[in-house]
């Protein structure tokens, strides 16, 4: 798994389809879904960590690109879930 697209494709295996309308929101919803899969013991620790790093990077890049930082903090959710 290397990017946000790969994560979206992985989520589709569990019939999780994400399209909220803004890329930033899609990343945030994907982060929540990844958390839920991990809590349900569907994801290994390694896959979970890899996905969270990718999502945090994509989120940071999207905030930098759009200047929109008024939403869910992927990094805070990651540290809060452990």
TrEMBL record:
TM stretches of this protein: none
Entries under InterPro entries matching the protein: YqgQ-like (IPR009256), YqgQ-like_sf (IPR023164)
Annotated spans, Disordered: 62-82
Composition skew (Basic and acidic residues), residue ranges: 62-71
SUPFAM superfamilies given in the database record: YqgQ-like (SSF158379)
The name this protein goes by in its record: YqgQ family protein
Native species: Fructobacillus parabroussonetiae
Highest classification ranks of the organism: Bacteria, Bacillati, Bacillota, Bacilli, Lactobacillales
């Amino acid at each position: 798994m290397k990017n946000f697209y790969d994560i979206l494709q992985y989520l589709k295996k569990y019939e999780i389809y994400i399209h909220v309308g803004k890329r930033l929101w899609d990343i945030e919803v994907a982060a929540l879904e990844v958390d839920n899969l991990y809590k349900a013991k569907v994801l290994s620790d390694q896959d979970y960590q890899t996905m969270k790093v990718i999502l945090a990077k994509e989120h940071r890049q999207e905030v930098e690109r759009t200047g929109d930082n008024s939403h869910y903090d992927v990094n805070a959710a990651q540290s809060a879930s452990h």
